[in-house]
Amino acid sequence: MARIAELARLELTPAEADRSLVQLNRVLELIEALQAVDTAGVAPMTHAGDMVLRLRPDAVTEPDRRDDYQRVAPAVDHGLYLVPRVIE
């Protein structure tokens, strides 16, 4: 546990290190138990509970002001904003 604490830049007392070691071992045992479960034939889920997405109509809500914005831009070429080169 001392090596893990060192890598994580944690300063642990010996009692904290012992307690952390027990907790880490429990986590690793849980991971082993989960890996042992046969999941063949189980369809992947996107969410643990049934969810229905609330959808809104795909409608344009803002006016097209591209020409207005490009008219005041310092440099434009074929509808693209031109910016100074920063990497040579």
Description:
The longest helix is centred in the N-terminal third of the chain and has 23 residues, at 14-36. This protein is flat. Helices cover 40% and strands 5% of the residues. The protein has helices at residues 2-7, 14-36, 66-71, and strands spanning 76-77, 80-81. The chain has 3 helices and 2 strands. The model has no long low-confidence stretch (mean pLDDT 91). A two-stranded antiparallel ribbon has the order 1-2. It is mainly α and 88 residues long. The chain has a domain at 1-37: Histone, subunit A.
Unreliably modeled segments: none
Output the CATH topology of the domain at 1-37: Histone, subunit A
Identify the overall geometry. Answer: flat
Helix content: 25-40%
The termini sit apart by: 49 Å
Structural class by SSE content: mainly alpha
Q: How would a crystallographer describe the biggest sheet?
A: 2 strands, antiparallel
Name of the CATH first level of the domain at 1-37: Mainly Alpha
How many E-type strands? 2
User: Which percent range describes the beta-strand content?
Assistant: under 5%
Number of helices: 3
Order of helices and strands: HHHEE
CATH architecture of the domain at 1-37: Orthogonal Bundle
Give the mean pLDDT: 91
Lateral arrangement of strands in the main beta sheet: 1-2
Question: Gyration radius, to the nearest Å?
Answer: 28 Å
